[in-house]
Specification:
The protein is of the alpha/beta class. It has helices spanning 15-29, 46-51, 60-67, 83-91, 104-110, 117-140, 146-150, 156-160, 170-180, 207-214, 235-246, 266-269, 287-296, 313-320, 350-363, 365-382, 385-404, 438-449, and strands at 2-6, 33-38, 53-56, 71-76, 95-98, 164-167, 189-191, 221-226, 252-257, 279-281, 299-302, 325-328, 342-344. The strands form 2 sheets. The protein has a 7-stranded parallel sheet with strand order 3-2-1-4-5-6-7, sandwiched between helices. Strands 10-9-8-11-12-13 form a 6-stranded parallel sheet, with helices on both faces.
Length: 450
Amino acid sequence: MKLAFWSPLSPKGTGIADYSEELLPYLKKGGADIHLFVEDYEPTNPEILESFEWHYAREYEEVAAREAFDLNLYQIGNSAFHRYALNAALRFPGVVVLHDLVLQHLFLGLSVERGDTALYLSEMKRAYGVRGAALGRQIAAALGSELLTSKFPLCERMVERSYGVLVLTRFMQRWLEERFGSIPVGKFIGRAPHHYAPPPPLPVQTPLEARRLLGLPDDAFLVAAFGLATRAKRIDRALLGFKRFLETGADARFLIVGEVQESYDLETIADTAAFGDKLVLMGRQPMDKFYLYMLACDVVVNLRFPSTGELSGTLIRTLGMGKPVLVSNTGPFVEFPEHTVARIDLGVPEVEAIARTLQLFYENPQLRAAMGRFAREHVESRYKLEDEADAYLAFLEKVAAARRDGKLVDPPPYDQADLAASVMTTIADMPLGKTFGLETVREALRDVAE
């Protein structure tokens, strides 16, 4: 099978670049002939450059005429790194791998951030009617919360314009099947579980050695959050719980290993200055150091709300490293067995639950070790790269065969694509369903209607 593969790659600072570069060799090993398409930069991963032909996105039509690809495969996330792939996917339909259901930031970047608010409002109206347009004005004016935008994913046109959709969690698969089951693409919605890529060879093997190499205290209890810090990852709530835990007199540190999103004023929201040396902001780290910090820490915090079905690559990595992880008890996180993660309920009890759980792990190193062991065994058995690549190739072959046999019609032209009235989403059908926070959205809709 010959594939045109669209994804950000190194040196782009996104987890999906890491994800793609880990997956690509296994797709090739499974028999796929892959050409890579990137925006206006040169990939830098030497192993990828050695193994795959790559092209600029602007060269696609010329390359496609020569290579006759069986399918285009698009890795799509909710960030500016995917703008070029979104534009291509709408022009040249293929199979989309949705890493996020909610593509609000992606569409805002293509419209409002470029001074074209009308384009964004048109898309919101098309997907959600007059109320969608009204709420779109609020979101475009930066007055909409993450919870509000999570209820209006704006993935509709992308899905309609695709031959098939792959997702990484059952949560996303169920939602898409319910939403799009009555249109042709609804027959080709599959799941390929997010892979676990074992760490590269590290210069040290034990947490103590990693701490000394990184200049971290030998005996402190280390709590860490990995990846880009955003409001949805609830770092401010985690810090409140950590602050309450510190009142017990524990010698502990909270490490944020990753950048803090520019729009997330963590310093003000969480009063970070008050933590002194108990809070350490490490910034973005190269992958080898990223793994060293994982090895060094005792407990990881990986909260998420609102959650719209996405699965964090850093969560899979930390579980695979045998670390106990605190997760929000919502969305795809409930797919993990209870003995592999520590679930934190949302709402009023959240901060206290974080503090109690940290205290429990602090006082019981045997519990930390046992949960870490269960987590590692679960990830190593259920999230193998080989299995994910096999799932990809089986799904892609199914879609390609349906096209060859005339069982899968081409999506409607971009300017004609529209959803049938029978599948228009109601507020209760949107991501999160009837879970915590729905009343907030209903109240917002009432305000707009009035």
